[in-house]
Amino acid sequence: MRLTFHGTLLGIILLLLAMMALGPARQLWAEHQQVRSDEAALAAGNAEAAQLTARIQAMQDPKHVEQLARDQLGYVRPGETSYIIVHPQAATSPAPPASKTAHVSWLQLAWSGIRASL
């Protein structure tokens, strides 16, 4: 098979066109990825907004607010008695006694430095 001038020229032109299309194709792919990422973030934001809307609606109910006050703040109605149950903590091992550092005079430090250099 013999390559002609026109065949070679056509091959070079097609190769140049493919190389020129590579940059915009890469940019298009990156933009599609960004759109997917933004859609996922939007879906997460919508889910959070739905949760907050449900919480706002729950706060409109006086029974719910009363239950929150009882559970989180320990409120009771007049005449009621509140009991707090305290679970005993597991016995922890005492901390080891701090080791006492022996006082070393400057003379001893100097002498030990001299002995180490000999």
What does this structure look like?
This protein is mainly α and 118 residues long. It is flat and about 95 Å long. The chain has helices at 5-59, 62-73, 106-117. Helices cover 67% and strands 0% of the residues. It contains 3 helices and no strands. The longest helix is centred in the N-terminal third of the chain and has 55 residues, at 5-59.
Quick take:
With about 120 residues, the chain is an all-alpha fold. The protein has 3 helices and no strands. The radius of gyration is 39 Å and the shape is flat.
Q: What coarse outline follows from CA principal-axis ratios?
A: flat
Report the strand count. Answer: 0
Major sheet attributes: none
Low-confidence stretches: none
Number of helices: 3
What is the rounded distance between the termini?
87 Å
Helix content: 55-70%
Q: Which oligomeric form is depicted?
A: single chain
- How do the helices and strands follow one another from N- to C-terminus? HHH
Percent of residues in beta strands: under 5%
Instruction: Kindly report the average pLDDT value.
Output: 87
**Category by helix and strand content:** mainly alpha
